[in-house]
Design a protein that fits this description.
This protein is mostly helical and about 450 residues long. It has 24 helices and three strands. Strands 1-3-2 form a three-stranded mixed β-sheet. Helix 4 crosses helix 9, helix 6 runs antiparallel to helix 24 and helix 16 packs antiparallel against helix 17. It comes from Neopusillimonas maritima.
Length: about 450
């Protein structure tokens, strides 16, 4: 189905458009820039995409309590925190992610964008206009908000056809089962989404149901497919439950929603055993951390640990707590143990680096950052910490180059150019200046290319 759109929006142009949207979107206030959440969602997306032998997609989180998910051009999939919190098991969440990845692989977004209806052209033009405004100046945050706000609503404005939705269901279902998830998860999630839509219909309907209409035909099709398969034996990962609890807290934007989150977490802590109880206590610890109630954090973490469960998010919060109490050596010891146990965990690595910096072990922190950047070169926070470490060591050129990398990953290309220009002015090395000149031109060319692309849609 995707081939029909290639003449109007080629895969290369689609990718560039998606990259331009995300460069601004990463600075959108509701974009979740959290190591635990990001690593989990990227890993889930990678597991599903590999099961379908497709290219990797970038799955990211959005802080929004509504039950929703959306696909953007260029292989980006956004998942609202409310969808993850609403999922009763990992297979339910994976079913929606798989469905959105199927939209990406079938190029449904590109097809919708190139439909020759006035409303769709206006929707695309509004996205392009917001991005152009951001590119024209210093990458003002308000413009980033406008750009991502438009982009996040793209599939609501464009809409997918009934045929495209059913195709995404079938491809997503196959992806789900090949990846080892319970096929019943999609049926369960469809039922949950339909119930949510029915309850909210008087208030405008459920967010996901309004953008991905759940017809009787679609639901029956998936039920029949699941009925013909043996029941899955998927074991939910610990990470799912801990990320779910964390997001319940992160999406609580006012005192009322925070009290509701606490009530639900306490109910789960009393109702369940093992990992789910530990995750609920971790959520309560994180809620107390947000309030800076450090004694409550420590108490809740002890309750979580008493369940016989240890997890990277718990260790990261323990490190942060020790640093907040100025127990630097204790933080260092916790970090050493956590790194030895979970060397591939991004959140633990980040907390460990911050502990090293607070303990004035700057060289050790830089060494650890080199390892983290090698594993996760797209994570902006590592470059920001690297810049701080170089500044401490009296290496301002390296510090500004690292900050340029940070701004580039965040999508603030103009700010990245300024950092590189400052670095060039501080350097007396001809070869280093030449390298910086090349890098500056590359970034300026990217801004120009993005502008030329977006001008096509105005």
């Amino acid at each position: 189905m995707g081939a029909a759109s290639s003449a109007d929006l080629s895969p290369a142009l689609e990718q560039t458009l998606g990259d331009a949207i995300m460069e601004q979107g990463r600075r959108f206030p509701s974009y979740i820039n959290d190591a635990d959440v990001s690593q989990y969602l990227l890993g889930l997306g990678r597991r599903l995409s590999q099961a379908s032998s497709g290219a990797d997609v970038t799955v990211f989180g959005v802080r929004d309590p509504s039950i929703n998910a959306f696909a953007l051009p260029g292989g980006y999939v956004g998942i609202n925190s409310g969808l993850i919190v609403a999922a009763d098991n990992e297979s339910q969440l994976a079913s929606v992610v798989a469905h959105e990845i199927a939209h990406v692989y079938q190029r449904h977004v590109a097809r919708g964008m190139t439909q020759s209806t006035k409303s769709r052209n206006i929707a695309l033009a509004s996205i392009a206009g917001a991005l152009l405004a951001a590119l024209a100046g210093s990458g003002d945050l308000a413009m980033g908000v406008a750009a991502f706000g438009q982009a996040a609503a793209v599939d609501q404005q464009l809409g997918f056809s009934r045929q495209a939705e059913q195709e995404a269901d079938r491809a997503g279902f196959e992806m789900l089962t090949k990846a080892g998830f319970d096929p019943a998860g999609m049926v369960q999630m469809f039922s949950k989404l339909e119930n949510a839509a029915r309850l909210n219909r008087g208030e405008g309907g459920g967010a996901y149901a309004s953008t991905h209409p759940l017809s009787i035909q679609r639901m029956s099709d998936i039920e029949n497919r699941a009925r013909g398969m043996s029941a899955g034996r998927h074991q939910d990962s610990d990470a799912f439950w801990f990320v779910r609890s964390k997001l319940r807290v992160l999406q609580a934007r006012d005192s009322g929603s925070a009290r509701n989150a606490e009530s639900v977490l306490r109910q789960e802590a009393s109702q369940y055993e093992g990992v789910r109880r530990a995750a609920a206590w971790y959520g309560l610890a994180y809620l107390a951390w947000e309030r800076k109630a450090y004694d409550e954090v420590a108490q809740a973490l002890r309750q979580a640990g008493a369940q016989g469960v240890q997890s990277p998010p718990m260790a990261s919060l323990e490190i942060d707590l020790a640093m907040a109490r100025n127990q630097v050596e204790q933080a260092r010891q916790i970090a050493d143990r956590a790194l030895a146990r979970w060397p591939e965990n991004q959140g633990v690595g980040l907390a460990a680096v911050e502990a090293l910096l607070k303990n004035n072990e700057t060289s050790a922190a830089l060494k650890q950052l080199d390892n983290l950047i090698e594993r996760w070169p797209e994570e902006p926070r590592f470059y920001q910490l690297q810049a701080q470490a170089f500044e401490r060591l009296g290496q301002p050129v390296k510090a500004r180059r690292a900050m340029a990398d940070y701004y580039e990953k965040m999508g603030a290309l103009a700010a990245a150019v300024v950092q590189l220009q400052q670095a060039r002015g501080l350097s007396n090395d001809f070869y280093e200046q030449s390298e910086l000149d090349v890098r500056i031109r590359e970034l300026q060319d990217r801004v120009r290319t993005n502008r030329e692309l977006l001008e096509q849609f105005r």
